[in-house]
Structure formats: C-alpha cells, structure tokens
C-alpha cells in the first residue's frame, strides 16, 4: 500500500473560491486521480498554507508528497507561502519523491534557489500548446509516452523564470522555457510540470470562469461572455468527448488532452518510476 501526502496549495480563501465553481478542492481532485492510477494508494490531505494545519501522517511514514496548484504567488511571500516552502523542503530532505504542477513547480524551484514570478511572455489560459522536450528531456522517464509535441491543460500567470542551479529542464514551449523540470535536493527528487496533467476539461472550464478578467486582459477573448462560451465548449467536450468531434476540431484539442490516460502520463510516470521503486527499495 502506498501512502501519499496531498498538499493543497491554496489558502482558505483560495479553496473556497475553487469550491464555488468546482465540487471539490484541488487536493481532492489530485487524490481522485492518484487513486485511479494507483488503486493501492491511500491519500492523506493537508492544507499547509493554514497556520493551524497538522500533517495527517508523518513525512517519514509517507511514500511521496504531491503539491497542487494555487491562487497564491510565490514572489509575494508571507506565511502562507513560507509554510508550503518549508513542507516541500522537509519532504525533500527526508528523501521523499515530490510531484507538483503549476504552483508546485514554482515552490520547488524557489526553495532550490531558482526564481518564480509573473511570466514576461504572458499567461497561458486553457491549454499550453506545442510543448516539446528539451535535449535533456529526451528519454527522461517523467515524459515517457509523450509524443514529440503535445498540448496540456494550463492556467497560470506565474512561472519559473530562472530554474534552480543543477536542475534539469525537461520541456518547454514558445510561451515558457520551463514546462517540465527535475530538481534534486539532497536525497529528495522533485518532478513537476507547469501545466496541469491532473485536470479534466470541465475543471479547466470552471477555472477559466474564475480567471475571466485575466483572460480578457490578456487579449485572448473580447469579453467575459466569450470566456463563458469557450468554457461551455470545454465543459461539453468533457461530458461527451467521443460524441463531439466538432468541438474537438473547433477547439484544436487532440487525444493527448481528451484521453485521461494520455493527459495524466506524468503523474503515472511519477508513481511508476519514482514512488514504487523507492517503496520497493
């Protein structure tokens, strides 16, 4: 049996905002995905941004840590950020495998000496397009099974602007150099993606509605009504993907995004190539 600690990157306000458009928190989404990929996994949820958070299971008794996305900004600092940085630092110091998407990557890069801040090339809303491996990413197990180029769910303004010394950037695209990365700190190994392999399209749609003002400001939609229309199309495609080739064609969404098995490759690879071997060892 695997014991996985799932840390929600949001503070209380962020979790409530997320719940206002989704029927679960970011941590609950991740826990569901992890259990679907590893039926023998027990997920222990924690919200480390909270001052009164208590780990439901000691790090030394866990097989891995997973950190979700967040509405917070690493560069702004403060206790809600520091507490999460401390948790990831402690997990890596304990030799745990750590996985994170979006916010998780930014936290890991920061504690290892990199820099996360607003992406000067602009945000990604909905999908990160045409992601490609770097030379260092060729053959790396995190990206095993990915085609030469792929799209993935993504919603972010911030990103890793300067990767930590000694880290390995595994993938990028024209909007961002660091779309996937490996970071080693002591005996601990972090694998992560700036994009969200855990998100279904209905959750992407919900998060776009929350970010409607930013989508319009970025010039990606004329107004919030257009954001809602795009979100509606994503929701409908999620509900009946096989029956709506017209929507997939219109939105430019391929099987790498539509298929849960393909979309979640990095999470499965993390479990199969880092977590299980460590557990067996």
Automatic annotation (TrEMBL):
CDD domains: GATase1_1. InterPro entries: ChyE-like, Class_I_gatase-like, GATASE. This is Glutamine amidotransferase. One of its GO terms (cellular component) is cytosol. Keywords: Glutamine amidotransferase, Transferase. The keyword Protein biosynthesis does not apply. One of its GO terms (molecular function) is transferase activity. Residues 58-203 form the Glutamine amidotransferase domain. PANTHER family: GLUTAMINE AMIDOTRANSFERASE YLR126C-RELATED (PTHR42695:SF5).
């Amino acid at each position: 049996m695997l014991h996985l600690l799932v840390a929600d990157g949001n503070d209380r306000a962020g979790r409530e905002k997320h719940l206002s458009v989704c029927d679960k928190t970011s941590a609950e989404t991740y826990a569901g995905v992890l259990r679907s990929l590893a039926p023998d996994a027990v997920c222990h949820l924690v919200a480390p941004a909270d001052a009164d958070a208590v780990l439901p299971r000691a790090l030394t008794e866990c097989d891995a840590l997973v950190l979700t996305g967040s509405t917070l900004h690493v560069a702004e600092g403060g206790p809600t950020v520091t507490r999460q940085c401390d948790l990831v630092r402690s997990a890596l110091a304990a030799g745990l495998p750590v996985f994170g998407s979006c916010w998780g990557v930014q936290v890991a890069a920061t504690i290892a000496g990199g820099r996360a801040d607003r992406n000067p090339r602009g945000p990604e809303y909905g999908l990160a397009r045409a992601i490609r491996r770097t030379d260092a990413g060729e053959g790396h197990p995190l990206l095993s099974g990915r085609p030469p180029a792929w799209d993935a769910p993504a919603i972010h303004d911030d990103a890793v602007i300067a990767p930590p010394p000694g880290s390995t950037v595994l993938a990028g695209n024209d909007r961002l150099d660091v779309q996937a990365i490996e970071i080693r700190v002591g005996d601990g190994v972090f694998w992560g993606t700036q994009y969200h392999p855990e998100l279904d399209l209905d959750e992407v749609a919900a998060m776009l509605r929350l970010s409607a003002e930013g989508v319009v400001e970025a010039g990606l939609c004329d107004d919030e009504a257009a954001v809602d229309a795009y979100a509606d199309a994503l929701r409908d495609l999620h509900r009946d993907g096989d029956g709506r080739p017209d929507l997939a064609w219109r939105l430019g969404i391929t099987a790498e995004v539509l298929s849960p098995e393909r979309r979640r490759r990095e999470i499965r690879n993390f479990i199969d190539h880092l977590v299980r071997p460590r557990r067996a060892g």
